[in-house]
Amino acid sequence: GNPATQFTSGRKAVENGRKGGIACAKAKKEKKALKETLETLLEMPIKEGRLVDIDKIKSIAGMKGKNVTMQEAIMLSMLNKAAKGDVRAAEYIRDTIGQKPANMMNVDMNLPVLFEGEDELE
Questions:
Q1: Residues of 44-65 as b/e, b for ≥16 C-beta within 10 angstroms?
Q2: Which of 33, 36, 87, 103 sees the fewest Cβ atoms within 10 Å?
């Protein structure tokens, strides 16, 4: 292998493991901060002012021009795409509401069972 990537001592291996652990913790912290920022942005209204009460809207068309959160705007966009035949948008909606089909495969195999000696049959 490459001598530059091989460990020359146990102490060096421990040091490199520590460095990797620190880098991993930093990456996790950054990912968490990014997630929290995105969640905050998704809850923000599209424009200044009061949000529309979605429960009082009677149709998708009734949402047009209303002040909604970014998350609601994204959902409306995906609904519109799905209604126009966008299969990926329809799958996204299905998966988001928890209707994603399980990825399962049934395997039916007949395997012979071999015994070495008579004593194994008892």
A1: eeeeeeeebeeeeeeeeeebee
A2: 103
| Residue 53 confidence (pLDDT) | 86
Q: In angstroms, rounded to a whole number, what is the distance separating the alpha carbons of residues 44 and 30?
A: 21
Whole-angstrom Cα distance, residue 98 to residue 51?
26
Residue of 49, 53, 51 whose CA lies nearest to 69: 51
Q: Could you tell me if 70 and 51 are in contact, meaning their C-beta atoms sit under 8 angstroms apart?
A: no
Q: Look up the pTM and report it.
A: 0.57
Structure tokens at 16: 């490199």
